[in-house]
């Protein structure tokens, strides 16, 4: 949000702020779910945090599209589809179909995936991959400062993808193989 507030407002700064805000809220998951031992309350808090997670793939897509000035039909279609899918997942948030509960093991917390959570992981993976590919393509046709900017953003997206992958992996293996939130902090720091 500081990037948006400092200097003149631009689309890039606004998109950066949206990505940072959605990712930042999503990283509150372990803290939010550890404030209580009540399983129903943990589930409600997890669903509240996942509101931000639902818009994260769309925000990645929009930021990458803004940076590479994407206007092709595929990008426009995917942008509209990302809004639609984010809305569907947000509507499913209050149900066990998306998040069935929260698994706890000591200080470890992860989502108990409902059926639609698996589709959310696919949605995240597809839109994140397209954003990553768009940035890579943008680097190939850019030069100077723009090329360097896209390289930093691509590097940040790579670090963020590692953090996101570990977050999703923890849901399926029921433990956190590496404290992935440090990667998310690095992602925003690089971005």
Describe what this molecule looks like in 3D.
The structure is a single chain. The chain is mostly helical. It contains eight helices and two strands. It has helices spanning 2-5, 11-26, 29-34, 39-67, 73-92, 115-141, 144-173, 181-190, and strands at 99-105, 108-113. Strands 1-2 form a two-stranded antiparallel ribbon. β1 and β2 form a beta hairpin. Mean pLDDT is 85; it is low at 1-5.
Tally of DSSP β-strands? 2
Instruction: Describe the sheet with the most strands.
Output: 2 strands, antiparallel
Order of helices and strands: HHHHHEEHHH
Point out poorly predicted stretches.
1-5
Strand content: 5-15%
End-to-end separation in angstroms reads 12 Å
Summing up helix and strand content along with how strands pair, one would put the structural category as: mainly alpha
Keywords:
mainly alpha; 8 helices; 2 strands; 7% strand; disordered N terminus
List the helices and strands and how they pair.
Elements: H1 2-5, H2 11-26, H3 29-34, H4 39-67, H5 73-92, E1 99-105, E2 108-113, H6 115-141, H7 144-173, H8 181-190
Antiparallel strand pairs: 1-2
């Amino acid at each position: 949000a500081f990037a948006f507030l400092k200097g003149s407002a631009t689309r890039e700064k606004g998109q950066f702020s949206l990505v940072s805000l959605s990712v930042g809220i999503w990283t509150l998951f372990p803290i939010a779910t550890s404030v209580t031992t009540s399983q129903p309350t943990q589930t409600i808090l997890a669903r509240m945090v996942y509101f931000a997670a639902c818009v994260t793939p769309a925000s990645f897509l929009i930021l990458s599209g803004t940076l590479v000035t994407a206007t092709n039909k595929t990008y426009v279609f995917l942008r509209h589809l990302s809004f639609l899918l984010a809305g569907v997942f947000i509507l499913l948030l209050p149900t066990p179909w998306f998040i069935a509960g929260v698994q706890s093991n000591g200080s470890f917390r992860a989502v108990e995936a409902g059926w639609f959570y698996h589709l959310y992981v696919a949605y995240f993976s597809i839109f994140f991959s397209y954003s990553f590919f768009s940035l890579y393509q943008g680097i190939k046709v850019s030069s100077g400062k723009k090329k360097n900017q896209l390289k930093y953003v691509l590097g940040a997206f790579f670090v963020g993808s590692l953090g996101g992958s570990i977050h999703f992996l923890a849901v399926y293996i029921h433990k956190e193989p590496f404290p992935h939130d440090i990667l998310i902090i690095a992602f925003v720091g690089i971005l």
